[in-house]
Design a protein that fits this description.
The complex is a heterodimer. Chain A is mainly alpha-helical. Chain A has 2 domains: 1-83, NADH-ubiquinone/plastoquinone oxidoreductase chain 6, subunit NuoJ (Four Helix Bundle (Hemerythrin (Met), subunit A), Up-down Bundle); 117-175. In chain A, 72% of the residues lie in helices and 1% in strands. Chain A contains 7 helices and 1 strand; from the N terminus they run βααααααα. In chain A, helix 1 (5-25) packs antiparallel against helix 2 and helix 2 runs antiparallel to helix 3 (53-78). Chain B has one domain. In chain B, the strands form 2 sheets. A two-stranded antiparallel ribbon of chain B has the order 2-3. A two-stranded antiparallel ribbon of chain B has the order 4-5. In chain B, a hairpin with a 2-residue loop joins strand 2 (109-112) and strand 3. In chain B, helix 1 crosses helix 11 (254-279). Chain B is mainly alpha-helical. Classes of the chains: A mainly alpha, B mainly alpha. The interface between A and B is large, with 41 and 38 residues.
């Protein structure tokens, strides 16, 4: 038996951390956006490794495939140049404080995870074996969505609808002198 | 480590998996030169010309010579581009093209000893979503190439591509939902297997329950969207030679351009294979071939030889179906002229999207009435 998971996980986690750093440190906005796409792909790989195949597919389909395309679309349309993202160097004391704060936060997370002894297997209803027996992730999620969590699901869709209506309203207001055939 | 995150393989599985992956990759690589030749000869046929006919029989070796030319061209990067992303972009468009085929079954399974080998690299339980999500990534090659080229026509191509992909992805995803509702699974293996049942009989001949008979509207929407997703005529606006020179690959040459072209042809192959799998039964035999197979079994074709013959016939049927849709790509390209961009957007948002939503409701109602 060849065990592949720890190696794959380390690789994906390394890519994810590297990309996350690139998103922050790259001065070119388009480079940052491309790094973010790779970060989403690495996350999807980790989700798939945990047996959450639906989440992995949706992560790529929605975040990397749709939302980030629009992000990059906007960045390219605005043609944001590098200097506008170059904020210059801040005060050394401020930098030291922020760095210390981040390190403390990281240390706290590591300590909390070490202490809590989180089990890698979800207990009960959402354990891998239970999900497989019920017919896969997508089936379980859709059944829960239309039974136990129907109200939150419908409320979310109403929220999205409100967002769409708002976007259309804003777009229409800025439309000056609409011409025939030009959209 | 526990059950949830430990994946174990033994040697037999590893070898079988390696052979399947090698087969798929080699086939996809081989499809490109053949398809380029078919496209050139096909366009010549439709325009009453000869097409490439000097090198090899029927000009078959023309693609080989072209490939050699591309590989040995000087690989120069001009000064105004972003060199890192400029070189990365062809790869980014090529890799998703190869990845998508992993979830498509090209034959059913065979039992060797106590092992069952599926003729599919991975039968994911989200197979269909996997293919949709990886195809949605293929737009990044185009965007990255167009942005790194630092050329206004290339940028136009990239912007057009991004808007077009997002618009048609939606209708594409929704058009498949009707079929998923009928089959009740996102696994492509299940979808192909479910199409083997008989819809009705004509004498001894069984007309199978192919997706096209159950979802004709869904099929039309799906195939229209695949043309937009693969940037093929009549929706090749990102290239649009007559308006924006060559669009996103304007600054590319040598094998970097070749990689973009390969990605386009491999995407066509995957789209054709997916159309065949979803709506034409995938590896299911053509009507009548099952009778031939049964009579061969009666005449002494038994055991492992019979199983391998069945698998070979299934793979051949799958290949023929895929080949038909690839020819359809060529046929449409040289028949229908390019759309204008506003026509493209109107078709996507005002025709295909409402139609695919209506298709879902009608399918749901028919399932409720227990017709489907």
């Amino acid at each position: 038996m060849i065990d592949v998971s720890p190696v794959t996980f380390t690789l994906l986690a390394g890519i994810a951390i590297g990309c996350a750093l690139m998103v922050v440190f790259k001065k070119n906005p388009v480079s940052s956006a491309f790094s973010l796409v790779l970060l989403f792909a690495a996350f999807a790989g980790i989700y798939a490794l945990l047996g959450a195949h639906l989440l992995a597919a949706l992560q790529i389909l929605v975040y990397a495939g749709a939302i980030m395309v629009l992000f990059i679309f906007v960045i390219m349309l605005l043609n944001a140049d590098e200097p506008s993202f170059d904020m210059g160097r801040s005060h050394p004391v401020l930098r030291a404080i922020v760095g210390l704060f981040c390190l403390t936060l990281l240390g706290f997370f590591v300590w909390a995870f070490k202490k809590s002894e989180v089990s890698l297997v979800m207990p009960g209803l959402f354990s891998t074996t239970a999900v497989d027996a019920a017919g896969g992730n997508s089936k379980v999620i859709s059944q829960l969505m239309f039974s136990k969590y129907e109200l939150p699901f419908e409320l979310t869709s109403i929220l999205l609808l409100a967002g769409i209506v708002g976007a259309v309203a804003i777009a229409k207001r800025n439309l000056t002198s609409p011409k025939e055939g030009v959209k | 480590m526990n059950e949830a995150v430990t994946t174990g393989f033994d040697t037999f599985d590893l070898v079988a998996m390696g052979l399947k992956i090698a087969l798929i990759v080699v086939m996809l690589l081989q499809v490109v030169p053949i398809m380029v030749w078919v496209e050139r000869r096909g366009s010549a046929l439709l325009q009453n010309r000869l097409g490439p006919n000097r090198i090899g029989p029927f000009g078959l070796l023309q693609s080989l010579v072209d490939a050699i030319k591309m590989m040995f061209k000087e690989d120069r990067v001009t000064g105004h581009v972003n060199p890192f992303y400029f070189r990365l972009a062809p790869l980014v468009s090529l890799i998703p093209a190869f990845m998508t085929f992993a979830a498509i079954p090209f034959a059913s399974h065979i039992t060797l000893g106590d092992k069952t080998v599926e003729f599919q690299i991975a039968d994911l339980n989200v197979g269909l979503l996997y293919i949709l999500s990886i195809t949605s990534l293929s737009v990044y090659g185009v965007i990255m190439g167009s942005w790194a080229s630092n050329n206004k026509y290339a940028i136009f191509g990239g912007l057009r591509s991004a808007a077009q992909m997002i618009s048609y992805e939606l209708s594409m995803g929704l058009s498949i939902i009707g079929l998923v509702m009928i089959v009740g699974s996102l696994k492509l293996g299940d979808i192909a297997a479910a199409q083997g049942a008989a819809l009705f009989h004509i004498g001894p001949l069984a007309i199978p329950k192919w997706g096209i008979f159950l979802q004709p509207i869904g099929f039309l929407i799906f195939i229209t969207c695949t043309y937009a997703e693969t940037n093929r005529l009549p929706f090749d606006l990102p290239e649009g030679e007559s308006e924006i020179v060559a669009g996103y690959h304007l600054e590319y040459y040598s094998m970097m351009f070749g990689a973009f072209m390969m990605a386009e042809y491999i995407n066509m192959t995957v789209a054709s294979a997916l159309t065949a799998t979803l709506y034409f039964g995938g590896w299911q035999l053509f009507p009548g071939l099952d009778l031939v197979l049964a009579s061969a079994a009666n005449h002494g074709l038994q055991g492992l030889a019979f199983e391998w013959t069945r698998v070979a016939l299934e793979a051949a049927c799958f290949t023929l179906k895929t080949a038909f849709f690839m020819w359809l790509f060529v046929w449409v390209r040289w028949t229908i002229p390019r759309f204008r961009y506003d026509q493209l957007m109107n078709l996507g948002w005002k025709v295909l999207l409402p139609l695919s939503l209506a298709n879902i409701f009608v399918t749901g109602y028919l399932i409720y009435l227990k017709v489907l």
